[in-house]
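Example S7 (structure tokens).
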């Protein structure tokens, strides 16, 4: 069997570089993400798939690898793998399970049932909020291992006094998602995992809880001199359990490898451990090759050949994915991607609220501001789009200032009152134009030096002082003034 290999072509505008020994090295990184699937039972048995139960309670003869037991494929796991593949634009292929042989206490059978050279998902891609696209090589199904706890010493097996094994996790369905080496910066790595998690959750494939081990990340890191094409020797950093750790570990490992090469040493292909406290990686073992696992087809399982009609039905039931949702909001609001505000709204799951408010006729720019800033707290998503649109109509018509609209919106959270009713209860009335002009003139007269700088200064100075004068007017009006109207008056008074 020959496993597929990733191409060396890498396209990215951003590259993380390291200077060492007079040579500039660039980072090349691929990520392997293990996502536990949202099934009720395990991959090959009816044992429960639950987190947090007492150790060794969610087990059965298949989980423990007792003699005479036979695996049976979990149909729901197959469906979820297909859902993921379709969500990332991948090809769904007939697949074959294999035995991956290794000897460790967390795998009681002394082999893991996995997919090797014929995975169920091939190709696909993940589009990051910043626009960078990371290609996927494959995603394959396998069973999870048990969990070993090493007691005493530094918490690792080499220094432990004894070890405990919990087989509750053994046999849990896993989807291992392997990216191509298209990640070029630690920040891209963080964005990739965050976006991948969002896709998994949106598609209903996994809960994506890194803190519970539902999502675990291995980073394959290598460096090469800038301007060269060949990939360097990679090291795999295992089981990174937070986005912060992921970025720090990749950056450290890139610098370590560059320093080795700069002094004429060879980078050894290794599996390495990340220590959060020291901020360093350390060798766990020499990196295995596929041949070391002695893969061969699992004799107790038939090939998996999903019916095309079933695949089509799964695809038809998929909700929009985060990238498509960002494009929908951007198109409706008339903004160009990438846009941080749009990305934030989609990340928080408030894109439907924003889209429906815009569709109802609300000013798109004000919708994005209110949803991203003023409805970010608890209960913000509960404000119905039509009520949000009604509030923004009052704001854009001049009936409410921006400050007043923000205050009314805060009261709308958890209330059935209309924006008009809340505004009336608070005594909010738009300032008379003449009164506003008089107040602006008074503030100008009270600050002649600042006004002279505003009137004669450059754009930078004027921009800085605009905030000062608007603030003075807002203070004098007790928040009744419209900031935009004040800015317009200042511009007219200065002759700009």
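Recovered sequence:
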């Amino acid at each position: 069997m020959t496993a597929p290999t990733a191409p060396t072509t890498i396209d990215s505008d951003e590259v993380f570089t390291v200077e060492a020994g007079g040579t500039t090295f660039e980072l090349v990184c691929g990520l392997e993400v293990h996502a536990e699937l949202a099934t009720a039972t395990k991959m090959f048995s009816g044992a429960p798939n639950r987190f947090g139960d007492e150790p060794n309670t969610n087990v059965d003869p298949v989980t423990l690898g007792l003699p005479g037991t036979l695996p049976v494929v979990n149909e729901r796991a197959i469906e979820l793998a297909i859902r993921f593949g379709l969500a990332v634009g991948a090809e769904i292929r007939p697949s074959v399970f294999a035995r991956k042989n290794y000897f460790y206490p967390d795998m009681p059978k002394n082999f893991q049932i996995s997919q090797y050279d014929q995975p169920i998902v091939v190709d696909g891609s993940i589009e990051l909020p910043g626009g960078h696209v990371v290609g996927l090589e494959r995603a394959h199904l396998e069973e999870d291992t048990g969990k070993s706890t090493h007691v005493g010493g530094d918490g690792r097996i080499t220094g432990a006094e004894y070890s405990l094994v919990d087989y509750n996790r053994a046999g849990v369905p896993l989807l291992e998602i392997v990216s191509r080496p298209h990640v070029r910066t630690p920040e891209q790595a963080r964005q990739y995992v965050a976006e991948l998690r969002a896709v998994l959750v949106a598609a209903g494939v996994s809960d994506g809880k890194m803190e519970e081990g539902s999502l675990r990340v291995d980073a394959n890191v290598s460096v090469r001199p800038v301007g060269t094409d060949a990939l360097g020797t990679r090291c795999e950093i295992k089981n990174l359990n937070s986005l912060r750790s992921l970025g720090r570990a990749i950056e450290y490992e890139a610098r370590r490898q560059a320093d080795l090469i700069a002094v004429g040493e060879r980078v050894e292909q290794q599996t390495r451990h990340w220590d959060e406290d020291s901020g360093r990686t350390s060798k766990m073992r020499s990196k295995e090759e596929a041949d070391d696992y002695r893969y061969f087809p699992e004799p107790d399982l038939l090939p998996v050949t999903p019916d095309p009609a079933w695949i089509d039905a799964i695809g038809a039931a998929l909700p929009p994915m985060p990238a498509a949702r960002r494009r929908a909001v951007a198109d409706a609001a008339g903004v160009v991607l990438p846009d941080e505000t749009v990305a934030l709204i989609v990340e928080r799951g408030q894109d439907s609220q924003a889209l429906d408010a815009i569709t109802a006729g609300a000013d798109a720019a004000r919708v994005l501001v209110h949803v991203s800033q003023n409805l970010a707290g608890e209960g913000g998503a509960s404000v119905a789009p039509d009520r949000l649109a009604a509030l923004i109509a009052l704001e854009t018509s001049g009936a409410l200032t921006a400050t007043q609209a923000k205050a009314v919106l805060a009261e709308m959270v958890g209330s059935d009152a209309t924006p008009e009713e809340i505004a009336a209860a608070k005594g909010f009335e738009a300032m008379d134009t003449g009164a506003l002009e008089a107040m602006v003139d008074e503030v100008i007269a009270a600050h002649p030096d600042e006004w002279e700088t505003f009137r004669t200064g450059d754009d930078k100075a004027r921009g800085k002082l605009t905030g000062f004068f608007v603030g003075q007017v807002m203070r004098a009006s007790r928040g009744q003034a419209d900031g935009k109207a004040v800015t317009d008056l200042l511009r007219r008074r200065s002759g700009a």
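Notes on this example. The radius of gyration is 29 Å.
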